[in-house]
Amino acid sequence: MQIRWNSLTKLSLWFSVLRNESFREIMVGAPKLEFFELFLYWGYNNLTFDSPCLRTVNVCEYETIDYENDEHDHGPILRISAPNVRSLQLTGALYRKFVLMNVSSVVHATLDFRPYIKPFREEKLKWQKENLMELGRSLKHVESLTLGIWCIEVLAQRERRRIPPQISTNKCATLNINMTEEDLLGIVNLLKGSPNLQMLIIDMEPKFWEEPRVPDLTDSENFCIDNVANCVASQAEHVKCLLHHLKTVKITQFVEQHSVLSFVEFILKNGRVLENFVIIAKRGLDENSEEYLRIVKRWGFYEEENSPKSLLKVAQRLLSIPRSSSLAVITLRSRYTLLTDNIFQRLFRHSMVLCLYLLTTLSSYSDGTR
């Protein structure tokens, strides 16, 4: 039966089989389609998104048993062509090789894969990493790039091996990661390859896949870095975006940990044109939520990750870090208050007064007086 969806503008297909022929019928029969999503589908290996109005495409791959014993060890190659697409999101399991074609129109791209290594074979993981870097090269022109946990993990391994970064022209990068020390190496590798980057956004609560890290198969004795923070600091001169372009850095779902503060220090000390550094603390559970009540019932208490006391320590640490840019403004947002250092410094003319202000403000929330 011929498809005639002449008025359809948005289509999402979840959990089923889609053959190449059926996909072509959709592209031909839905001329006004603007948004297309394939979530955990299988059965196709050639996706040409050429519907004239199509601007947003999301593909979330589903690993299938059919391909596990493929003679090439990566199943049939998936070829994606998107001549008119502006936003392209590729997620899921990278169990077969991706090839991108005609993607010069893409402005916003997301790569948030997880490796498929069941059963584990070294050669399988190797080609998956190589394919991931190939996808990055195909999207090096996009204005905005979003990367997930495993993407940054692969970049971190390349940084450990001192492999030169892939160069891109991205102006904005969003990273969905946990901000471990290993992630710092991946971030630095990304920054070194993004000389035109103007905005960096780090979401510490990943959106898609969060699995245990894949072991690095390289001989660790030859590529060991004892102090990641010192290694990151030593690469500042190679991060060109810090000298000329990077003006905004934003961390959301922030939780205090040493690696995050090391990253903040690296940016503040070396970002010569930095204007805004925004940190949004992760909000604790609402006292009326089911999760909060469950935790209290089981353990007798609930300890919030970003307590007023811990945020005070963070604020004090931020004030103590020297800044390369005289225009840099640090903003710390939490459920308790909004702290913008330059405003209070203009009011009180000394950063120590800000510390006292924070101490008074946060302590009042802590002891229940406000």
Care to describe what's here?
- With 370 residues, the chain is of the alpha/beta class.
- The chain contains 11 helices and 15 strands.
- It has helices spanning 20-29, 122-138, 149-160, 181-192, 228-234, 241-244, 258-270, 290-299, 308-320, 341-348, 351-366; strands at residues 10-14, 35-41, 46-48, 56-61, 78-81, 87-94, 98-101, 108-115, 144-147, 172-176, 199-203, 248-254, 276-281, 329-333, 338-340.
- The chain is globular, with a radius of gyration of 23 Å.
- Mean pLDDT is 82; it is low at 217-224, 343-360 and 362-370.
Sequence-ordered SSE layout with sheet pairings:
Blueprint: E1 10-14, H1 20-29, E2 35-41, E3 46-48, E4 56-61, E5 78-81, E6 87-94, E7 98-101, E8 108-115, H2 122-138, E9 144-147, H3 149-160, E10 172-176, H4 181-192, E11 199-203, H5 228-234, H6 241-244, E12 248-254, H7 258-270, E13 276-281, H8 290-299, H9 308-320, E14 329-333, E15 338-340, H10 341-348, H11 351-366
Parallel strand pairs: 1-2, 2-4, 3-5, 4-6, 5-7, 6-8, 8-9, 9-10, 10-11, 11-12, 12-13, 13-14
Antiparallel strand pairs: 14-15
Helix pairs in contact: 3-4, 4-5, 9-11
User: What characterizes the major β-sheet?
Assistant: 12 strands, mixed
Could you say which structural class the secondary elements and strand pairing correspond to? alpha/beta
Helix content: 25-40%
Can you give the mean pLDDT? Answer: 82
Estimate the global geometry from the Cα principal axes.
Answer: globular
- Strand proportion, as a percent range, falls in 15-25%
Radius of gyration: 23 Å
Q: Give the termini separation.
A: 67 Å
> What ranges have pLDDT less than 50 throughout 5 or more consecutive residues?
217-224, 343-360, 362-370
Task: Report the oligomer.
Answer: single chain
Output the strand order for the largest sheet: 1-2-4-6-8-9-10-11-12-13-14-15
SSE pattern: EHEEEEEEEHEHEHEHHEHEHHEEHH
Question: Count of helical segments?
Answer: 11
Instruction: Please give the number of β-strands.
Output: 15
